[in-house]
Amino acid sequence: MMSPNKSSFSEDLRLDILKEIGNIGAAHAATALSTLLNKRIDLKIPSAQVVPISEVNGPNRDNNVAATYTYIDCDIHGHFFMLFKEEHAEMLVSNMIPNTTIYDGGLGESAFCEIGNILCGSYISALSQFLNITIHQSPPILSIDIAAAILGEGLIELSMETDSVIVIETVLVDKTNHHQMNGEFVFLPTPDSMDLIFKLALGGE
Question: What's the pTM value of the predicted model, to 2 decimals?
Answer without folding.
Answer: 0.84
